[in-house]
């Protein structure tokens, strides 16, 4: 038996139960991983609340790092004893030990700790595909990135700086503004004291931006469209304030033939080749020191409910992890 978080119904953080589960031997194509650290992400909230449906009862969590204890029949990607990390696949990372598809695991370089890996895989791979695959940013581009002091945001600040991209970031407090600026964000807007649409226009001398990256959703979507120059790209990759309301396509035409995409990491990392290439890029950025992973909150796995409360209240900065 091993400890894990399970939910039997959708709802608030109180629906998460810290229970004993039977893990068993890995099946064909599976590996058993003993976690040393587990990632905490807003997608976990979406599954807990039911915004993203899943059969119940169920586990939570898409990201972790640890050591392979055993492998099932046909597994060639990893071996027992390997240090590994992952982001994606079936929910269930909120656990001390789990079986999971071995094809999702990548070997972890010795220079990267388990805690760093668990804090960066989902968020770092998200930035990797947003900046290099959803669209290919180039030096001199100007972008708008919401929630610039969050886990994804702080990685994006550093990655943009390394690429020579001018990043305008939004945050919810002056303290978060300083944090984003310290990590390489070119211009920072406090959306609680400033009109971000107006400030983007001022910062860009009326030219606006070529790409907006929006993980906030409902509260910022239309304003984000107003920040785009003609033929600009709106990348809606999260719903922290709720799902985007339905809108007419004329909203895009009237602003200059805008493009909109709703990407997900799991579509961009759909093959083993993609996972390996994207992970190698992320590991290289971290090992070079161009991107540093800020773990500003650590919680015991048993305290996952408190971690969710803090995350939803936007009390967290940088990355958060659960420790089994």
What does this structure look like?
Keywords: NADP, Oxidoreductase. Pfam families: ADH_N, ADH_zinc_N. This is Quinone oxidoreductase. It comes from Massilia polaris. InterPro entries: ADH-like_C, ADH-like_N, ER, GroES-like_sf, NAD(P)-bd_dom_sf, QOR-like, Quin_OxRdtase/zeta-crystal_CS. With 324 residues, this protein is of the alpha/beta class. It folds into 2 domains: 2-120 and 274-323, Medium-chain alcohol dehydrogenases, catalytic domain (Quinone Oxidoreductase, Chain A, domain 1, Alpha-Beta Complex), CATH 3.90.180.10; 139-262, Rossmann fold (3-Layer(aba) Sandwich). 30% of the residues lie in helices and 27% in strands. The protein contains 10 helices and 15 strands. It has helices at residues 42-49, 114-134, 151-163, 174-182, 196-203, 221-226, 250-253, 265-268, 272-287, 304-312; strands spanning 2-7, 16-21, 30-39, 63-71, 83-87, 97-101, 106-107, 142-145, 166-171, 187-190, 209-214, 228-236, 259-261, 295-300, 319-323. Strands 3, 4, 5, 6, 7, 14 and 15 form a 7-stranded mixed β-sheet that branches. Strand 1 (2-7) and strand 2 (16-21) form a beta hairpin. The longest helix is centred in the middle third of the chain and has 21 residues, at 114-134. The two termini are 14 Å apart.
Highlighted features:
10 helices, single chain, NADPH binding, NAD(P)-bd_dom_sf, 15 strands, Rossmann fold, Quinone Oxidoreductase, Chain A, domain 1, 324 residues, 2 domains, zinc ion binding, alpha/beta
């Amino acid at each position: 038996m091993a400890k894990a978080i399970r939910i039997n119904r959708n709802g608030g953080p109180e629906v998460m139960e810290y229970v004993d589960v039977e893990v068993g031997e890995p099946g064909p194509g599976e590996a058993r991983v003993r976690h040393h650290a587990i990632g905490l992400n807003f997608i976990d909230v979406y599954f807990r609340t039911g915004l993203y449906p899943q059969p119940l009862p169920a586990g939570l969590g898409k990201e972790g790092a640890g050591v392979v204890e055993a492998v099932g029949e046909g597994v060639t990607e990893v071996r027992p004893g390997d240090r590994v990390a992952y982001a994606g696949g079936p929910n269930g990372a909120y656990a001390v030990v789990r079986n999971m598809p071995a094809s999702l695991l990548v070997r972890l370089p010795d220079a990267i700790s388990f805690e760093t890996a668990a804090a960066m895989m989902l968020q770092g791979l998200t930035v990797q595909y947003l900046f290099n695959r959803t669209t290919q940013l180039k030096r001199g581009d100007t972008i708008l990135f919401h929630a610039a002091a969050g886990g994804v945001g702080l990685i994006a600040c550093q990655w943009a700086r390394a690429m020579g991209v001018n990043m305008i970031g939004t945050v919810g407090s002056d303290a978060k503004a300083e944090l984003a600026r310290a990590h390489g964000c070119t211009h920072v807007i406090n959306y609680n004291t400033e009109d971000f649409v107006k400030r983007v226009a001022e910062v860009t001398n009326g030219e606006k931006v070529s790409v907006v990256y929006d993980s906030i959703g409902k509260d910022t979507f239309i304003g984000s469209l107003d920040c785009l120059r003609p033929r600009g790209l709106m990348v809606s990759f999260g719903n922290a304030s709720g799902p985007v309301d339905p809108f007419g396509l004329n909203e895009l035409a009237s602003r200059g033939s805008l493009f909109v995409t709703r990407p997900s990491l799991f579509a961009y990392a759909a093959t083993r080749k993609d996972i390996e290439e994207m992970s190698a890029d992320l590991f290289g950025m971290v090992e070079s020191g161009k991107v540093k992973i800020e773990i500003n909150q650590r919680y015991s796995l048993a305290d996952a409910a408190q971690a969710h409360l803090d995350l939803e209240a936007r009390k967290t900065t940088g990355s958060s992890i659960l420790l089994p």
